[in-house]
Structures are given as C-alpha cells and as structure tokens.
C-alpha cells in the first residue's frame, strides 16, 4: 500500500468533467483511485507491477 502521506496526483491532461484517475507512488507500490470518488477505494500495485498493468491495457 502506498505511503498515505504521499500526494495523490491527477494527469495534467485531465479536465474537470473527465473520468480520471489519480495516482500516489511510493518506493513499494503505486495506488490508483477514481478522482471523482476517492473514498470508494483504491487499487494498489506492488513495485514493478503497475508498468505491466499499463502495458496490458495498451495492448488490449
């Protein structure tokens, strides 16, 4: 789980009405959550796994 003291950040390409995600990165993992519903939970990827997840999405 990412260090909760980290800063959640949203893509600079996001608009205020878009469906966006936010990321928080720590040395151990990367957290991903819905920017419009941050209290709904988050996905946590162990170190090194987030890149593989993005690659799988791009290749789908």
Automatic annotation (TrEMBL):
It comes from the Bacteria. Residues 7-58 form the DUF397 domain. InterPro entries: DUF397. This is DUF397 domain-containing protein. It comes from Saccharothrix ecbatanensis.
């Amino acid at each position: 789980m990412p260090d909760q003291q980290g800063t959640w950040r949203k893509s600079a390409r996001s608009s205020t009405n878009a469906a966006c995600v936010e990321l928080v990165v720590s040395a151990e993992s990367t957290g991903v959550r819905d920017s419009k519903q941050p209290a709904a939970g988050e996905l946590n990827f162990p170190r090194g796994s987030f890149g593989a997840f993005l690659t799988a999405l791009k290749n789908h």
